[in-house]
Amino acid sequence: MQRSLLIKPMLNEDYPTISYGKGIYLYDDTGKKYLDGSSGAVTASIGHQVPEIIEAMVNQASKVSFAYRSQFTSKPAEQLAEKLNELVNGEEDYFSFFVNSGSEATETAMKIAIQYWQEKGDYRKQKILSRWMSYHGITIGALSMSGHVKRRERFVPLLAEYPSISAPYCYRCPLSQTTPSCQLACAFELETAINRIGAEHIAAFIAEPIVGASGAALVPPEGYYEKIADICERYNILFIADEVMTGLGRTGKRFGLDHWNVKPDIIALGKGMSAGYTPIAATLVSEKVMEPIINGSASIMSGHTYSANPQSAAISLAVLEYIEKQRLTEKAEEIGSYLFHKLQEVAKDVAIIGDIRGKGLLLGLEFVQDRKTKQPFEAKLALTDLIVKKARENGLLLYPAAAGKDGVQGDAVIIAPPFIITKEETDQLIRILKETLIEIEQDLR
Ligand code: PMP
């Protein structure tokens, strides 16, 4: 049995051993080639073995890899914070608090939101509102804000009692409505929840601009985020955008929320920030939120040993510069539309595809027994796992996602290849995907 428990979701199954990666492909130690159709966990956005990143790694390592954050800042960390602020391109400046994972980024966001109100003399605003069908991370604080039923269920007694509202899941509306006649009922649910709980108890509302792991690329109806931002402002509640999956080009814009021209108070970033070349993540905090903290206790009550280490900062900076120089955000949008169109063609021959959704290169497929009734497959069939496994055998990596009402009974995968994928490589992805789904349909019969 393989001994590194950390890397394996299923302990009774041996996984391939990675040997190396190049471009959009990964190779195991038997020489088998895999098309990285999900950028790992929607992370390796610029592909593998990019020479510019390796050069930046070596350059920084030849100077200094680690200096402790409360003893030194570093040029790479400062430049990275500058670059992130420039990318947000907001009316106000954003400051970066560096951490090492998406979970730490959202948990830090939660703490900063609570601290913000305390610095303003308000100690009652402690709750964070979130949505069902959301994922903000695996640590207890981040999981408390997450509406991912399966990831929560073992730990519910430990979790903070944070209330959640319905997800904007138009394919199976949790409020049994249809857009546009619903008039954004799911956004107005935020207002109802605030009125029930009392705005004086709520520090912030957190949402993924496009829902990832807990819904497979759920795009809300038009006007949704404008309404959410308006409600947050009217009720004095901070808006935290969890852009861990959607940030930095993935959806064809710099940030997921840029599709709606809404600026949040706090932004959590991770994954694509280093495109997998090093663990680094960040919580971006607007001037508005920073001001009372700077004028109050003047320190953020959080931090980790590896926060803002110069090695990771240099790598992340090189990744962001690479994305910019190669115009990869624009490419993600262009090739994303091509991939979307190709998926629609696949759906003509594959009846189990119920819905295709997403933006840019964050696309999701939801599977159903019957397209008309949207009847999901029985949970015990574990269809998502079967699809992911068969695709891997066929040389294509997909990311399993939760779907169905509240993410409990439903099957979906995320397709999110690196932004550098060419049209020919996209055609190859589509070929393997179609072959896999046709095999699955035959097995189901
Ligand atoms: N937020 C979102 C939106 C995510 O997709 C993830 C990871 N899937 C996280 C937070 C947690 O990030 P990490 O796994 O790096 O802790």
From TrEMBL:
Protein name (database record): Adenosylmethionine-8-amino-7-oxononanoate aminotransferase
Annotated NCBIfam families: PRK06917.1
UniProt cross-references to PANTHER family, sorted A to Z: AMINOTRANSFERASE (PTHR43094), AMINOTRANSFERASE CLASS-III (PTHR43094:SF1)
Organism (species): Metabacillus niabensis
UniProt entry keywords in alphabetical sequence: Aminotransferase, Pyridoxal phosphate, Transferase
Family membership noted in the UniProt record: Belongs to the class-III pyridoxal-phosphate-dependent aminotransferase family.
PROSITE patterns recorded: AA_TRANSFER_CLASS_3
InterPro entries named in the record: Aminotrans_3 (IPR005814), Aminotrans_3_PPA_site (IPR049704), PyrdxlP-dep_Trfase (IPR015424), PyrdxlP-dep_Trfase_major (IPR015421), PyrdxlP-dep_Trfase_small (IPR015422)
Top-rank lineage group of the source organism: Bacteria
An example molecular function term from Gene Ontology annotations: transaminase activity
Lineage: Bacteria, Bacillati, Bacillota, Bacilli, Bacillales
Database matches in CDD domains: OAT_like
Coiled coil: none
